[in-house]
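Methods, example record. To illustrate the input and output format used throughout this study, we show the complete record for Mitochondrial acidic protein MAM33. The sequence lines were provided to the predictor; the line carrying structure tokens was produced by it.
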Amino acid sequence: MQQFDLHKFELQDTVVDIPDDFPFKVQDKAGKRVIILTRNCGDETINIVVDLLNARCENVEGDAVNSEEESEPQPSVPLSVTVSKENGLSLEFDVRAFPNKISICGISIKEAKSSSNQLDCKGPAFSLVNESLQKSFYEYLEVRGLTGSIANFLLEYVISKDTKEYTRWLKNIKNFVEH
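The corresponding predicted structure is encoded as:
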């Protein structure tokens, strides 16, 4: 039987430190594929969810964020951003994080799950929304902490987590094969 050698795989041990002034609490459990960022802002709670299954920092071609002068596709990570009010209403944003910027793909409004009324309006494609309203939504998220620097942090953090989880997986495989 052939010996399984984990050391054949060269993986960079990338550790991303959370800055002291980082506005979000990071929930990241080893072995789990979801990263959650949470913060309170007045009477609102902001949750940003990154699912590693969908976040491979792959280059996205033809995205609305890429302008004509940018011929190279940029790495991006899809995010689900929820801004919840104490009354149970929430806005849910489908967002893509790029280096130094975010791109809103869609917005929906929802009521608390315990409500018997089913308010779940996805609205039109974000690109069809009035330009001035689009700008207002970007400002809305920026005030709540979703900025270009947060997008950069998330891109680095996802790469680091993906590497750690891959290393953990390889070690588990090695332990299985050796025992």
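Annotations derived from this record:
Helices lie at 131-143, 148-178.
The CA atoms of residues 13 and 164 lie 7 Å apart.
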